[in-house]
Design a protein that fits this description.
Blueprint (H helix, E strand, L loop, with lengths): L1 H68 L6 H15 L8 H22 L17
Helix pairs in contact: 1-2, 2-3
Family: Belongs to the LTO1 family.
Keywords: Coiled coil
Pfam family, one: Yae1_N
Length: about 140
Amino acid sequence: MNGLEDIFDSSLDLEEKHLDHGWDQGLRDGEALGLKEGWTLGLGKGFEIGAETGFYAGCVAVWAHFAQKDPSIFSERALKGIAALRRLISGFKEMDTEDDELQDQLEKLRAKFKAVTAMLGVRHEYQPTENASALQF
């Protein structure tokens, strides 16, 4: 009877082996899919943050250009605000930042930009476009 029992034992273990194999395969596939989705989300968020900080940098470059051409065009306070905004942009950490730290930096940039535009008397704000990620070159 031992030989017969061994045959049935291996048959009974078959279901468990398939379940274990399916579990392992599902785990591997889930990890791979999670990494891909995480990468895609990170790429999209990185693009959004880069577009916003690029907008602020572009505004600072234009204002600095006008200030260089005619220093009397802006008040001393506004010039200091522009310089402070430039320092915030140049010190912005794009890599290896914790989510909270990145959010704090963005909030400081937004607040300083709002303050500078108020000093300059301009109504200017960052308005992301919905199709910005669909740009093709």
